[in-house]
Structure formats: C-alpha cells, structure tokens
Amino acid sequence: MEDLLRPIYQERASHSNTLGILYIEKQKPISPITDNFDSILLIIVKDAEDPWYIKHYEYGDEKSAAMHIVDERQLNHWIETSGYRSMLEWVINGKVVFDRNEFVENLKEELRVFPEEKRGLRKVIEFAKLIRSYRQSKDLFETKQFLDAYNEMVRSLHYLARLAVIEKGLHPEVTVWKQVKQISPDIYKLYEELTHSHESTEKRVELMLLATEFEINSRAKSCSQYLLDVMNTKVNWSIGDLKVHPAVQPYALDLSALLEYLVERHIVSVVNIETKGQGIYHRTYKVME
C-alpha cells in the first residue's frame, strides 16, 4: 500500500517547508488509531498557513488513506498537552519515509526521553483533570446518583493512570491500562476493584473515593509543582492574571478547581485585597512558604 501512496508523499517531500513524513498502516480490522483508514500519512511542516490540514483518498482495491499535514507548532502543542493522542502514537510508531535533517528522529528521541519540564506540564494537566473529576464523582455519590458517580470515578482512575505513567517518565498511550498493569500495578488494582468487585455499585464507589483521595493527596505537591513554579515568579496572583499565563493556558479550564484544592491543602494561600466596595475583597493567591 505504501508504494501506491509514494507519489503523494514524494511530491510533499519536495516542498522546502516539509520537515518529515511518517507512514502508518492499519494493523487490524477495527483500528481507532487510524480512524479505521487503511493508511495514514503524517506530514510535518513548518510555517504553515493552516496548522492542520486533512485530505482523504481512496486507492487500490477500495483502500482508504488519510493525509494529515500538521504544522510543527501545532504538533508540539498536541504532544505537550495530550490534545490528540493518536497523533502521538503516529509519531512514536510510524515508519519514517522522509526526514529532513533528522527532524523526525530527533522528535522520536525527545519523546523517548520525555524531558522533566514537559513532564511537569503533563502532570499538572492530568492532575487538574483528576481533581475536577474526583470531586464530581464525590458530589454525585453524596446525592445518591451512584451510577453517574461510578462513571465519573472510572474517568478519575483513568486520569490517575495517566499520571502514574507520566511519573515513570513515559508518555501515556491510548491503551493506558496495558501500560499501567506493567509499571504501576497498585493503580491497576484500584481499577480492577472498581470494575470487577462483587460489592454493590454504591460500596465500590465509596471505597474508590477513599482510595483515590489518598492517591491525590500524596501527589499534591509534586504534580502541582509546574504551577507553583509559575506562581513563585511574583508575590501573588489574581485568577485572571494566572489564567492567561502561557504556562497555565493548557489547563486553564481546570485552574479554579486546582487552586481551590491547593488552598484546602495549605499549599497555596489566599490574599485578600480591598476593593471600593465595603466588605468586598479581590481574592488573590500566593504559594505558602
């Protein structure tokens, strides 16, 4: 199949702004990784007018292919924030068919090494999602919406699993539980207890809320460090100023929930600043010493 698509990617390889091209082939009848296309061509470019452009093709004996042309800045954003996990797997596992100045090989190596700074961003993103999801599950449980609480707890454990993988210096894959079973069996056991226990749904969720709260609290400082480092660059922050900081924007939607949790854990403190309204204060935040 690659031979049939060669004229397409060779033409793209001739463009001066093309940095690399990867080829991914469907490995099984149902393939979410390739959106069920038989082949994927991932073309990484620089300074593109459109950060992400797609074309679909049909070739050979009713075979299908998708070509994704992605600007390197967009690709890096997805990699750093886990915004498009299939794209990450394409880069890691795709066959390199064109590589200008070893751009793709260097990218693959960076993904393998997973630098601490990028790992810190990924940890705080997943941790903030975990906080929000856990609290949603707890609220649903307390209002006796046990099935909804169960569904939200499954999501919470998924975020916890992704965190466990990142803490080991690896990128979470789409098949994250397969990774977790190998590298963090204690987290995998929580998932098994939630999904396979003979206890009632109510009891399973109740036990998982306790177990997950312990896992969250034990990671509070380490998983929030990326945010705390930003906050340490000045004395105190309004939520508005913090939300638009470039290092915070990837998890801005979950920032309020994360900050409130850190206040409760006495990792961040609230500093009230007077307003013109009597008895009304602007709430700002600082890292506790």
Biggest sheet, spatial arrangement of strands: 3-4-2-1-5
Net shape: globular
Number of strands: 8
Cα gyration radius (Å): 22 Å
The percentage helix is 40-55%
Strand content: 15-25%
Order of helices and strands: HEEEEHHEHHHHHHEHHEE
Q: Report low-confidence residues grouped into runs of 5 or more.
A: none
In DSSP terms, counting alpha (H) and pi (I) runs of 4 or more, how many helices? 11
Measured between the Cα atoms of the first and last residue, the distance is: 60 Å
Whole-number mean pLDDT: 94
Class from helix and strand fractions: alpha+beta
Oligomer: single chain
Q: Describe the main β-sheet briefly.
A: 5 strands, mixed
Task: Provide tags for this entry.
alpha+beta, 8 strands, 5-stranded mixed sheet, 289 residues, 3-stranded antiparallel sheet, 11 helices, single chain
